[in-house]
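Review form for a predicted model. The reviewer records the input and the model, then writes brief findings.
Reviewer: anonymous (R2)
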Amino acid sequence: MEASEIIKEIREEKNGLVISSNYKLIQASRGRLKEIIKRQIIFSKPIITREGIGIIYPNTISTIQGKSGVHKSRLTENLCCCLLTKVPEKSYLGYSASSDEKFTVLYVDTERNQSDQFPYALQKIVTNSGFPMESEIANFDFISLVEISREERFEALKDYLSNLRKTNKNHIVIILDVLTDIIKNFNDPNESLKLIDLMNMMINQSNVTFIGIIHENPNGNDKARGHLGTEIFNKSSTVMQIGFEKDKKNNNTDLIKVSYLKCRSTRRLEDFYLVYSDVTNGLELAEGELINDILDARKSKANIIELKKFLAQTLHTPLSKDILFENIKAEFECSYRIIEDRLKQLVNSKELFNNKFGFESFLTKYTENRKVVYALHTQKTNPNTLL
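Model under review:
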């Protein structure tokens, strides 16, 4: 019998409707939504806050990204500690967990060795959470995928998560460190979507929350690696970025900046700064004096006075953001972040300065043909031309 004939029989048997397992799943979801929209929507409370502001919410995907070696995992350790702690008043870089729910934390590692690197990180989570080093915390689970071949890691993780969910009643916070090592090829759309689809399915059906760690491209931009990096950014509710602040020569300083690149559930949150402590082998909040010293030193490069002179001499016609940034970078040898800060200051202030021809002008920014463009807008007539 041909496949088309089988489908035809099914259609006839079901009065012309195809009743598949996916159709049943969609109908069940539709039924739940119909009931929910009949009553007042109560939004979920955050499971992790910082200084009273929601950072990570239940049944979501969050991401921590940064270059190699910028302490992504150490930042993540603090999130684990605030979920597990028996000392609620202790500060974990300002992060704290909701007391309304019991959490189980699963830490999945794909990079570190099992002889000292990963065990030491786990030991720090245990002790920093207020437990004796030899304790076995009932709601803290951890696995390593290092010994599993890359081709088999996804299925191995999938099986473990399924079994954990069946044997654990708590809300489970799953740390994936790092995301790109779980699949065979992080540039393969099919592989990337396979992992993301699993995460999306679980946050909707299994009372779990994911926090994924991912490396940024090593070539200088701030994008997370590969096709997986692009997709996980789109699907994440919160995206945090951690990295070293640069000095005037674009070298790393001791100051570590944590930024929020995406906050779906709140307003864009303020950056904060950390330092690495050799004493605790961990991260600590940076002192205000250190922050000011380093940031003030950076501002001396491509300062506003120098930048206005450069714009007056070179910005005769409107230029796209890409071209203008490259021109400024070549002139002042500074980062794109510094350039963006300086131009933003000039655009917002509408500060007047004379262009090359003596006309009072101010810097403007607008969009043209889907491109960001900068131009000098003439404010007054050139006084030198008046009789």
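Findings: Residues 254 and 308 are 31 Å apart (CA to CA).
Further findings: DSSP finds eleven helices and 16 strands in the chain.
Recommendation: see findings above.
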